[in-house]
Amino acid sequence: MALFKRLRDLTMANINALLDKAEDPVKMLEQYLRDMEEDIKDAEVAVAKQIAVEMKLKQQYEEASELATKREQQAMMALEQGNEDLARRALVDKKSVAEKANDYKQQYQNAKVTADDLRHRLSEMKDQFEEMKNKKDTLKARHEAAKAQKQINEVMSGFGTDNAAKGFSRMEEKVLQAEAEAEASKQLYGSSRSLDDEFKELKKGSSDIDDELAALKAKMGK
């Protein structure tokens, strides 16, 4: 039995952990508010019924009280007319009606206390619901901010590291390699020129200087 209980506890713990992980805070808050709305609707129905009972008992109490007063007045009228028997019957009925009035009054007072309590509790429920609605908006904003912060933290944690840094390093090596190859080809070209090519270049340079020197002499009249 202990083993089965242990397995059951572990299973329930795993299920609860999965549920906690799967819960979307915003969706759960909205669901809680919907549940509260349903509770408020049920409470409103209960309060309405209790108010109806209160009003009915109040009406019965008032009607019985008025009838008791009426019977007393009728008894007085009968005595004034010298009809003591009629006055006696009116007083008997007055007593019976007065007892009912007292009973209705007690029931009405109890019903009113209950109705007032239900009204107060319903008002508290509505106040709490409004508070939760406002709090939901705040929590929703905080949740969105937390998700955005988490997302940017995850991006920043891998920014400029590993693949990107290695990629930059490889490209830098390629550029250095290209530069080295260009320099090597330049040197190779210079070493591959023939002796005649070098003299032609030298002669070309000397000819330019000779021409410039001759022009300068002519300009000076020499």
TrEMBL record:
Pfam families: PspA_IM30 (PF04012). InterPro entries: PspA_VIPP1. It comes from the Bacteria. Transmembrane segments: none annotated. Residues 26-53, 94-188 form a coiled coil. Keywords: Coiled coil. The keyword Transferase does not apply. Belongs to the PspA/Vipp/IM30 family. PANTHER family: MEMBRANE-ASSOCIATED PROTEIN VIPP1, CHLOROPLASTIC, PHAGE SHOCK PROTEIN A. This is Phage-shock protein.
